[in-house]
Design a protein that fits this description.
6 helices; four-stranded antiparallel beta sheet; single chain; about 150 residues; rbstp2171; about 10% strand; 4 strands
Length: about 150
């Protein structure tokens, strides 16, 4: 049987590709894809029977957390106050429920979360463990950003 004109034209096009055609790019990792589509990464920490979910922060949230911690700036525990504020901002849920529930639209969520963590969580193991996971998330963000030239 003879070749169809379509098959012959297709073979010619395949052969006509230049040799310096770039290789298809590698697939993006889950972290890279998530960063490109949502701008943040999430993770969780399991402490005892509690599952604490957290996410990376937007710059405004980081700055607001810094302002909340600033009232402790002249104390020996200024750094722990800042870490606590970052943890409060980063936590999204505990056992699937929000860390706090707001009573009205005028309430400052981060301020309420910070106060809740100050009043109810211990430094070790809770705050320090959640912060360690937050740092791991930041490392993942940096690695993924460098891989896709975002940072």
């Amino acid at each position: 049987m003879s070749e169809s004109l379509y098959d012959a034209a297709f073979e010619q096009r395949e052969d006509a590709q230049p040799e310096d055609t770039p290789e298809p790019s590698e697939e993006l990792s889950d972290d890279e894809t998530t960063l490109l589509y949502t701008g943040h990464l999430t993770s969780q920490v399991t402490l005892g029977n509690r599952v604490i979910r957290l996410r990376t922060l937007k710059i405004g949230e980081e700055l607001e957390a810094s302002l909340l911690a600033a009232r402790y700036r002249d104390t020996a525990d200024a750094n722990r106050a800042l870490v606590t504020a970052f943890v409060a901002a980063a936590v999204t849920t505990v056992d699937g429920d929000p860390l706090i529930r707001l009573l009205g639209p005028g309430e400052n969520e981060l301020e309420k979360k910070f106060q809740f963590v100050l009043d109810n969580w211990y430094w070790s193991p809770t705050i320090s463990s959640v912060y360690a996971e937050y740092n791991a998330l930041l490392r993942r963000v940096n690695e993924a950003s460098e891989s896709v030239n975002l940072g």
